Amino acid sequence: MPPIRSSDDLGQRWRALMGPLGFGQPRLWIGFVEPSAMMSAQLTQIDDIPRSADPQLCAALLEMCGHIVGSHGVGGSVAFLLARPGRNPMDDADRSWARGLTSAAQHLSVSIWPVHFGNDVELRVFAPDDLVIEV
User: Fold this and answer.
1) What is the DSSP letter of 80?
2) Euclidean distance between CA atoms 125 and 110, whole angstroms
3) Integer Cα distance of 1 and 18 in angstroms
4) What is the pTM of this model?
5) What does DSSP say about strands 77-83 and 123-125: parallel, antiparallel, or unpaired?
6) pLDDT tens digits for 22-77?
7) CA distance 75 to 96
C-alpha cells in the first residue's frame, strides 16, 4: 500500500480496508501511521461504542494511543474511523466523537489525522466545520 501523506490518502485507505460499505453496529476503528507514513497492518476496533462520545472515554483512549505513538507524534500518528450502520447523514452524535477525539489528542499532545466517518452509503472526513459546536 502507498504511504499516507494526506487526509485524502487516509480516506482512500479506510475505503480499501472497509470494502463494501455497510456496518452492522457502531464501531471505532483505530489505525497507527508510522513516521514513514505507512499504516500499520494491525487495526484495532472498539465495538459497542456509545452513540455519543464520552470525554473521559476519549481521553483514556488517546492516553493509550499516546503510549503507542509517543507525544507529538515521535513514533507516528493515530487514525480514527467512526463507523455506524444506516444511511442517515452525519449528525451531532457522530460529530461529538470527532470533537472528543480531536480535543483529547490536543490536550494530550498526541498526533492524530483528521477523523473519518463511514456509514452504509459514504465514507468521508469530518471537515473542520463539522467540529464547530453550534450555539
Assistant:
1) E
2) 19
3) 14
4) 0.92
5) unpaired
6) 888 899 999 999 999 999 988 999 998 999 999 999 999 999 999 999 766 678 99
7) 27
